[in-house]
Write a structure and sequence with these properties.
Blueprint: H1 2-25, H2 32-38, H3 45-52, E1 57-62, H4 68-82, E2 87-92, H5 95-111, E3 118-121, E4 125-128, E5 133-138, H6 141-144, E6 152-156, H7 163-169, E7 179-184, H8 191-199, E8 204-208, H9 218-228, H10 230-238, H11 251-263, H12 275-281, H13 285-295
Parallel strand pairs: 1-7, 1-8, 2-5, 2-6, 6-7
Antiparallel strand pairs: 3-4, 4-5
Helix pairs in contact: 4-5, 9-10
């Protein structure tokens, strides 16, 4: 008898879940801009551009407090609500940082009255009855392996995420043909975020400085410039990739040196002919400074 009752309860639970799933497919989710306005967000022009974009590869190089995390949270939630069986991964350098973006997503979901019911809500996962999931993960390679079929990959504070992690998660989009969004403020001329921004050709690139954000006053920015100094201010508020303070050589000097070394056939053996010396004469002073340090 108990076994029979247990079986009936399982069947009823399954039917209820199927009914909720069927109801979810009938929920009308508006276009992304209207969706943002339902959350009392009037998008800036660049935010509207992002919300309506269909580009698969997007980089947001934006100043602090410009609204990049907020608008990407809106986009991630909209994607999960509007698509069946979507998988949204939110990655950051640390669990705390990815948790902050995930909290924004969950709070928006609650503000809307949970238009599609959830099956699971934890500190790291939101799964809806339409079988879409939003998962928050820290930026550690061992925690992200195993996910596949990712339809939207969000990497927050991308300039501070390890390169190994970035190159390990990109294959998750291979079969699903999913979308990737990198958002960050610059953090020196280093890493994949700088490389993709400066060299990547397949990306939609959006740069928003603090001067372009209507919510940040010029008075505040002047105070910040005086308090932080030019290096930090250029990076944090003007979206400039600055050489690190402790760097021995500027990035452009190193790049020129590497380029010249690739073109020259330099032989430093004592027994070789005078051709080696003539090759060395072709090096500029930047190359020689680097060469001297290597040889020392």
């Amino acid at each position: 008898m108990n076994r029979h009752r247990s079986r009936i309860r399982r069947l009823e639970s399954r039917r209820a879940s199927q009914a909720r799933g069927n109801d979810a497919t009938r929920v009308v989710i508006p276009d992304p801009v209207a969706f943002a306005r339902q959350l009392n967000i009037d998008p800036d022009p660049w935010q509207r551009d992002l919300l309506t974009s269909t580009d698969d590869h997007v980089i947001l190089n934006c100043a602090r407090q410009s609204g990049k995390s907020t608008i990407v949270a809106v986009l991630a939630l909209h994607h999960a609500l509007r698509n069946l069986r979507a998988l949204v991964l939110v990655l950051s350098p640390s669990l705390r940082q990815s948790g902050e973006l995930f909290k924004k997503i969950v709070n928006f979901y609650k503000d809307l009255g949970k238009p599609i019911p959830s099956e699971t809500e934890t500190a790291l996962t939101l799964q809806l009855v339409n079988k879409s999931r939003i998962v928050s993960l820290p930026g550690k390679e061992q925690t992200v392996r195993g996910y596949s079929g990712v339809s939207l990959l969000v990497i927050d504070e991308a300039a501070q995420v390890n390169d190994d992690l970035y190159y390990s998660v990109r294959p998750m989009l291979a079969v699903s043909q999913g979308r990737i969004i990198l958002l960050s403020t610059p953090f020196g001329k280093r890493g994949f975020f700088f490389k993709e921004w400066s060299e990547g050709e397949a990306w939609k690139k959006i740069k928003i400085t603090a001067h372009e954000c209507p919510r940040i006053s010029s008075e505040f920015l002047e105070e910040e410039r005086l308090a932080l100094g030019d290096w930090w201010f250029q990076q944090e508020y003007l979206c400039s990739f600055e050489d690190r303070d402790a760097a021995l050589f500027r990035y452009d000097v190193i790049q020129r040196a590497i380029s010249d070394f690739d073109e020259l056939d330099i032989n430093l053996d004592d027994d070789e002919d005078e051709g080696s010396a003539s090759d060395l004469n072709d090096l500029n002073s930047d190359n020689l400074n680097i060469l001297n340090i290597v040889l020392d």
